[in-house]
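Render this sequence as a predicted structure.
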Amino acid sequence: MAVINVDSRGSACPGPVTDLVRAYKKANNGDIIELLATDSGIKADAKAWCERTGNELLGIEESNGEYKVRILIKSKK
């Protein structure tokens, strides 16, 4: 298992999701993607992406206008 850190702070939609997909393409099952973003749209986007791809949203933390999204890769399609 590896943790893949992605920094999308300062990027507006669709930037954070695009960065998420790029990280996903490099990830393996069991890896965790940790995405940092400042665009609040990432909350809904990450949830929808996980539902669509079969991966697990471990959580979204919000602090001072920044979002930390953690996703467990369970389904490489």
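Summary. The first strand starts at residue 3 and ends at 8. The chain has a mean pLDDT of 95.
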